[in-house]
Amino acid sequence: MKIWKDFVLILSFVLLISACTRESPPNVNVTAYAATYAGGIYQTNNGGTSWFPLNIDQEPLQYYFKRIFSDPQNKNILYVTTTGNGLFKIDRLKKSMEQAESLKDQIVTSMAFLKPSDPVERYIIGTESKGIFEASDLHGSWQYFDEGLSYHEVNVLMVIGKELFAGTTKDVFKWNEPDKHWVSTSKGIINKNIISMAAAPDGKTILAGAGLAGFEKNFFSSTPCLYKSIDKGLRWSEADRGLCNEMSVYAIAVNVNRPERFYLGTSRGVYRSVDSGSKWSRINCGLPEGARVLDLKIIRTVEGMDAVFAVCDTKGIFMTIDNENPKWIGKNYGIESSAISSIILVSP
What is the pLDDT of residues 118-158, one digit of tens each? Predict the structure, then answer.
């Protein structure tokens, strides 16, 4: 019996080693922007082979946790939310940065762009404790947008077509446009501290990731960390087959060219599903031990490959190709010493 156990241990070790000696992904031609804690916003024009800080005055951005959002109407416009100094707009062509004056000192956690029936795009922001605001212009009047919102600690906003969702620390809400109010839509969700959301391109499959904070459980219960809806958020079911208990799902990304493939950025690395979230496999080959993945983005490159970028907090940025045997490679030259929170990939 001991010989058999020793054989199993040796075989497992060999399989682990061989799995992480697979071929490294090639370099890709991708433009990306990354948000760092102390260094502001960095840019790469070569898929992360080298990074450099944007050539603008970034002092108002420094020493805040930040997230980057791309304007869906203009890929040259980026928005940066900060946990302490509001919202900023960056024009990549003009190499300029503006701050939303009325949001100074605000803790802005998330942003979304809502295209209603009228031609004016609405900017929606979520805050840590003051709910949701909307405006049609960065420097315009930001109005409360929280009618029916029971909880004002907003973690994430998501738009599917013309539908808007909000994940808060205690519930999921959906905006009812005709009646102009938020409606709770979390039937089936146990851990309602939703910190990430994403949907398949057709909007039929939605995933919601949960964090550990604020969830009370008894000694015998586990902590579901992922939920799935196939009816636009009316009902949810646990979707954590293959995932570990007691972890947070910080980011969710879907490969729009292969919409059955979802990626999760978690407190235990990266997981992937190739069947629309029915089951998950951990794909950490090449990632540093203990990687906490705060953001994930996927883009089709000019070479025809689907490149996946993962932001691993203090451990850097890593890239792989969405293939059968992914291996991560560090893409950190010029940005190595920075804690990184968010990344945006710009379509060619």
Answer: 566 789 999 999 999 999 989 889 999 999 999 999 999 99
Nearest to 155 by CA among 128, 190, 134: 128
Structure tokens at 257: 């060219």
Burial call 160-180: b when 16+ CB within 10 Å, e when fewer: beebbbbbbbbbbbbbeeeee
Nearest to 248 by CA among 218, 219, 206, 214: 214
- Can you read off the two tokens belonging to residue 232? 């636009």
Tokens, residue 255: 């490969």
Closest listed residue to residue 271, CA positions, set 307, 301, 330, 226? 226
340 within 8 A of 334, measured Cβ to Cβ? no
pLDDT tens for each residue of 61-71: 989 999 999 99
pTM of the model: 0.90
